[in-house]
Amino acid sequence: MSTGHLSEIPACGRTKYLNETMIKFFRKIRYDLMVKNKTAKYLTYAIGEIVLVVIGILIALSINNWNEDRKSRKQEVKYLKNLQTDIDLELQNNDSLINYRAVTAKAAAHLLDFKTLETVSDFLTLEHTIQQVFLRKTFIPINNTYKELLSSGNLNYITNDSIKDYLLKLDKMYVAIDNMEYHMYREYEEYLYNIAVANGAVINLFDFQKTAENGAFVFKAPSQIPIDTLIPQYKRLLEKKEFLNGLKLSVMNNVVLKNSHTDMIGLLQKLNSLILDDLKTN
Length: 282
Prior knowledge:
Helix content: over 70%
Number of strands: 0
Structural class: mainly alpha
Number of domains: 2
Largest sheet: none
Distance between the termini: 35 Å
Shape: rod-shaped
Radius of gyration: 36 Å
């Protein structure tokens, strides 16, 4: 066993090293006392030997525990910093969705109150508004670090209970938003998509041949749009009770989802604040 500095010895060998060193030291003293027939002193040294061996073991265990705690904290700090990166991206993600939900709710409300449909300009406005409502965008969480903590069983590395609590709250919010989106898009299919397809031509602004050839959207010239045929179809669609009900549901669902993302931003900001405070103690 090396007799170098104790810190240079691997943690698993420190207890053994201390024991061997002290045993050799006390063995020599014990031998001298036995040879000189000094029984009382021998007993005193024997008790002292036991006490010091126990102290040595406790010191070695303390050093080992300190080293393990230091390694655990290093890993925890890595996870906390990765969580911060995810939070920064997630804040941007939610900001984008808040804007999208607000615009979509307003577009659906505008269709409910769409009065004038006579000119090419009216038709273009209507088509753009319908496309905004029909555009399907879903929330994809940016929570790679949290998923890694769960899948690896390393959530226990996060020692701050408040941080863990907010991570769990965030996870519940992910599930809630996913359920709301699923419910909303089922209504879209039944009351908006299916009704629109069954009651007239849809997506009339694009030249589909050139779009397919170019691999990018190519719009028709206004003069190429047969508004005399399309306007009557859209007027009938805007009078359909099912379609109007679908638009109302779209307004309500998009507003609810917008508010949910706003609440999520609050959770993310609080979580980020807790992580910042925790890292200051490092």
